[in-house]
Specification:
Blueprint (H helix, E strand, L loop, with lengths): L5 H11 L11 H5 L3 H5 L2 H6 L8 E6 L14 E4 L1 E5 L5 E3 L5 H15 L19 E6 L24 H18 L4 E4 L1 E2 L5 H10 L3 E4 L17 E6 L19 E6 L1 E6 L8 E5 L1 H18 L5 H10 L22 H5 L24 H9 L11 E2 L17 E2 L32
Parallel strand pairs: 1-5, 1-6, 2-5, 6-8, 8-9, 9-10
Antiparallel strand pairs: 2-13, 3-4, 7-14, 11-12
Helix pairs in contact: 5-8, 6-7, 7-11
Length: 440
């Protein structure tokens, strides 16, 4: 899938392109293997103890969504009625859709958090990491699947553009900003390739709201938002503990990785043929909401913990070795996100500082000045309050079909004819930020 601007598109296709699905006709026992992360992470044990994310709000920003998909019916899913874009005629583009091509990615991302355990006939129940949480869902625009062009106007009456460089970035920034204004405790973004989302990310850091974002599946260099200062870039690994690899067999190492979570061989709901079918897939897109869901569960148990303290707990209690001093590597960052480890330690003991944000580097993006400016504006509403609805999705064939204007961390296999593009980001590597929030 192509990103809004041609330069970003090439980078994004290489960086975030791969998701591999098993045949939809795979036997149920094979599909059940896609729940390995749920069992390995002791997620059911947490739910049985009464911790399922209840009372916590997670904002998800993605493509369109099908709120009536199997596994989401009855969940506390609040969908913003429209995306932040309008079509060439000035009509708002709806967020809800029953078209799998348009809504499959976003629907499955949310299912990793809110999945109710409902399953199609003969299928495997999919339960999310935090099924008791509230998810506020925002869609930041759409792309024409045939042409790759985007028709987007941020407001009625304003010009429509097919050069999405500015419009998509503004839409994403608006969505982040609105999520903060709407009371999100955590923001989960399984997409990347934007020209700039500085405003929204700066506001989130100033407000102490964690942004959890997917890294590229290939390419190493985190784009926006995952590669930004203060954002948690998420790596994916499989049931064998190995991180994703390139087609060459080389591991997907990155200077921007903050944590890792299950994202290879995970069970998804729906295919282009039918929402009732299931498949196995891979992608950092699916690892990201698992991390967000884990943090929601921890927030429920420790409601006085700030967003920054949740991130401190994430890096102090990773893996299976219990509480420890954080250590970073370019494979899994500070280690695999551990629900069990985080639930065992009260995060209010940690500093109220974002351990992924380097305040001392003036060239970081965003830097301390950007965040300070955002903090000064926090009491001023920057965008109109969104209208939420739980309405059923559009009927098939409605004029809302399309694919994401950004590049997603999982969904399709993309081939880019031998083009390699390197991009240097003007920010400090996350490995240079220590667990106290200062610079090591």
């Amino acid at each position: 899938m192509r990103s809004p601007h041609r330069l970003v598109a090439v980078l994004g296709a290489i960086a975030l392109g791969a998701a591999i699905a098993a045949p939809a006709s795979a036997a149920a026992e094979d599909l059940a293997s896609g729940l390995w992360w749920f069992d390995r992470g002791n997620v059911q044990e947490a739910h049985d103890s009464g911790f399922d994310g209840s009372g916590v709000t997670v904002a998800v920003i993605d493509s369109q969504i099908n709120p009536d998909a199997i596994g989401l019916r009855g969940a506390d899913l609040q969908v913003r009625e429209n995306t932040y874009c309008h079509d060439p005629a000035g009509a708002p583009i709806p967020t809800a859709s029953s078209d799998y091509v348009a809504a499959g990615h976003g629907t499955n991302v949310v299912s990793m958090i809110l999945g109710t355990g409902e399953a199609p006939a003969g299928g495997v129940p999919i339960e999310g990491a935090a099924p008791g949480a509230t998810v506020k869902y925002y869609s930041a625009g759409l792309e024409d699947p045939q042409t790759g062009e985007v028709s987007c106007a941020l407001e009625d009456g304003e010009q429509t553009t097919t050069d999405y460089t500015g419009a998509s970035a503004e839409a994403m920034s608006f969505a982040i900003s609105d999520a903060i204004d709407d009371g999100a405790d955590i923001i989960s973004i399984s997409s990347g390739g934007y020209a700039s989302v500085l405003g929204g990310v700066s506001k989130a850091i100033a407000a102490g709201v964690p942004i959890i974002a997917s890294l590229p599946n290939e390419g190493g260099v985190g784009d926006q938002p995952a590669g930004l200062n203060g954002v948690v870039g998420v790596q994916a690994f499989g049931s064998d503990g190995a991180i994703a690899t390139f087609p060459s067999g080389d591991p997907n190492l990155s200077d921007d990785v903050g944590t890792a979570a299950p994202g290879i061989g995970v069970l998804l709901q729906g295919t282009e043929a039918s929402w009732d079918e299931q498949r196995l897939a891979r992608g950092t897109s699916y690892a990201t909401p698992i991390v967000s869901g884990f943090l929601a569960v921890v927030k429920q148990k420790y409601p006085d913990a700030t967003g920054n303290q949740l991130l401190q707990s994430l890096i102090h209690n990773s893996g299976t070795k219990g509480e420890h001093e954080p250590e970073w590597n370019n494979s899994t960052g500070y280690g695999a996100a551990s629900l069990t480890g985080m639930l065992a330690v009260d995060p209010t003991k940690y500093p109220d500082e974002n351990p992924f944000f380097d305040p001392d580097d003036p060239n970081a993006f965003p830097n301390a000045d950007d965040v300070a400016k955002a903090a000064a504006d926090l009491d001023v509403g920057s965008t109109p309050e969104p209208t939420e609805t739980s309405a059923a999705p559009d009927e098939p064939g409605a004029a809302s079909a399309g694919v994401m204007p950004w590049v997603i961390g999982g969904g399709v296999v993309l081939l880019v004819g031998g083009i390699v593009l390197a991009v240097t980001l003007t920010r400090s590597s996350k490995r240079r930020t220590d667990h106290t929030g200062g610079q090591s």
